[in-house]
UniProtKB/TrEMBL annotation:
GO terms for biological process: DNA transposition. Pfam families: DDE_Tnp_1 (PF01609). The lineage of its organism: Bacteria, Bacillati, Actinomycetota, Actinomycetes, Kitasatosporales. It comes from the Bacteria. GO terms for molecular function: DNA binding; transposase activity. The keyword Transcription regulation does not apply. Residues 18-30 have a biased composition (Basic residues). This is Transposase. Keywords: Membrane, Transmembrane, Transmembrane helix. InterPro entries: Transposase_11. The chain crosses the membrane at residues 94-113. Residues 11-30 are annotated as: Disordered. Residues 2-108 form the Transposase IS4-like domain.
Length: 115
């Protein structure tokens, strides 16, 4: 499945964010994405939901400017990919896979805190 097809379900699945004052935020304020998400229907969908977007355009912009926001996510995904069980999805049930992701994230945090 292409990444752009998963953007809308991903954005809908974000839980409400608790804030110090006022009501809970139901949507993120902005989105940074690479050229894989450069589609007019996605830009329109984000605009309708009043989400500011910074999506690199194919053939026009370089995605290197997005790198300073993206590298945190890429680094975390590479840490998770280092876990053998998660490298290829061995589990058939999504609940088991998510449990292993949780365990891997806890181990990564533990290792980072002890160093």
């Amino acid at each position: 499945m292409h990444d752009s097809l998963g953007l809308q379900p991903l954005m809908r699945g974000i839980p409400p964010i608790r804030s110090r004052r006022g009501p809970r935020r139901r949507r993120p304020a902005k989105l940074h994405a690479d050229k894989g998400y450069d589609y007019d229907h996605l830009r329109k969908w984000l605009r309708e939901r009043r989400i500011r977007h910074r999506i690199a355009r194919k053939g026009i912009e370089s995605s290197t400017r997005l790198g300073r926001h993206r590298w945190v996510v890429e680094r975390t995904v590479s840490w998770l990919a280092g876990c053998r069980r998660l490298h290829r999805r061995y589990e058939r049930m999504a609940e088991h896979f998510l449990a292993f992701v949780g365990i891997a994230a806890a181990l990564i945090c533990y290792r980072r805190l002890t160093n």
